[in-house]
Amino acid sequence: MKQQINDLISKDVYTCASCGFCRFGCPVSKNVGFESQTARGRMYLLKKYLEGGLEYDKDLIESFYTCALCGNCNEICPTGVDYLEIVSHLRKQFVESGKLPESQKMLRDNLTKCGNPFAKDKEERGAWLPPQYREPKKSKYLYFVGCSSSYSSTRIAKSIMRILESVKFDFTVMGNLESCCGDPLFRMGEEDQANALMQKNIDVFDNLGVETIFASCAGCYKTLKNKFPKKYKVLHITQLLHQLVEQKTLVFKKELPNKIIYFDGCDIGRHCKTYEEPRELLKAIPGVELLEFDYNRDEAMCCGGPFAASDPNLAAKIAEDRVREAEEQGAEIIATACPTCMVNLREGARRIGSEIEVQDITLMLPKLIR
Ligand code: SF4
Ligand code: SF4
Questions:
Q1: Closest Cα to residue 295, out of 33, 126, 34, 76?
Q2: Which end of the chain is more exposed for a tag (fewer CB within 10 A), N or C?
């Protein structure tokens, strides 16, 4: 495997022109400032490694984890260096050789022991569910709630249930049978452990006869769409709600007279190319004036959410930048399509004393349909 990875690295490492364009949209580069933590810096270090002047020591390995895998550098690179591919292969190699950095181990252990990143009891996962959802039932449609909305942002999940109940949309949830989708493990290179969680979920999907899965977390959506078997149709909740609006099944009865800016989270955006449905859903609300960040869609900048567990200060510093940019556009509300983005941007707003509101789209809707 090591030789295969070296061959893969070598192609891109010697393609890199050292132009440094990748630093522009890199949230880490701006807030940490070390060249070793940019795509260009890592290309340089890998060149040294391939030429025999460097070993993968503790610090070098750690630097490959100080990356949000946001993908902005991949989009911007004029020579087409596939930086994300390199880092994901390297992380797998570090795991295989027992070199997962200390900063990742607690998260890995929580996920493998408890099936969630928070080390919470598996039996508590569905504790918030209204009685009618406690027992999973056979259904073609499954709402994959995800760890954040099961354990902390339960309001998002309850809102979604309220919206779908209002239009008599039939679906099921897995409750305590749901496990993490595996995204954090895939990201850190723990492929085998991630696949084990994925298989647990697949077994339940198949027992319930699930055909279409919708998720409210952008990370779950990306993982379900890109890693799970293609036999399942996977939607983000904003896509499903947009479909219901298009069919005139879901109708907004009240106005929301606000300037709203939509934040393209990296997982729903660059990694899944789902850009328009969340915007169309917001535009369908009477009274909404939809604004845009200067850098949006493929060029959107990460909110820092991927660092929320490993480096909360860095995560919040990055979020502060996004909040300031939203304020510069005159936004009153930042609308997200991911609980992690919402929580992290709220923290960024709190730290700079911003009055801007940060809301997941799904939280805005229940009061508009009554
Ligand atoms: S943008 Fe691409 S070519 Fe330029 S330094 Fe970064 S990785 Fe290298
Ligand atoms: S993936 Fe994102 S965080 Fe990582 S180097 Fe590229 S731009 Fe920076």
A1: 76
A2: C
